[in-house]
Write a structure and sequence with these properties.
elongated; 2 helices; protein transmembrane transporter activity; mainly alpha; 86 residues; protein transport
Length: 86
């Protein structure tokens, strides 16, 4: 996997660190994914991932707004009343 050298000792190929993928590797991966899943399935999956990320951002924003609106003691008191110990 290392760089090949010519007889003169100069590097013929650009050295890559172990574990990195070239553009050709990524193109092959994309083609294989397209063959397995099809174009419609991949776009649906990516749309679902986007919806999940938007929902997560929305919930995090709501949590930040709740913390900024309520006093510090109120948050702790609400958290303590919601937890039931059996």
């Amino acid at each position: 996997m290392g760089a090949k050298k010519t007889d003169s000792g100069s590097n013929k190929w650009k050295e890559q660190e172990m574990g990195t993928l070239s553009i050709w590797h990524w193109l092959i991966v994309i083609v294989v994914m397209m063959l397995f899943f099809g174009r419609g399935r991949i776009s649906t999956l990516m749309g679902d991932v986007g919806k999940g990320i938007r929902a997560l951002r929305h919930e995090l924003r709501d949590i930040d707004e709740t913390k900024s609106l309520a006093p510090e003691g109120e948050i702790h008191r609400q958290a303590a009343t919601r937890v039931s110990v059996d």
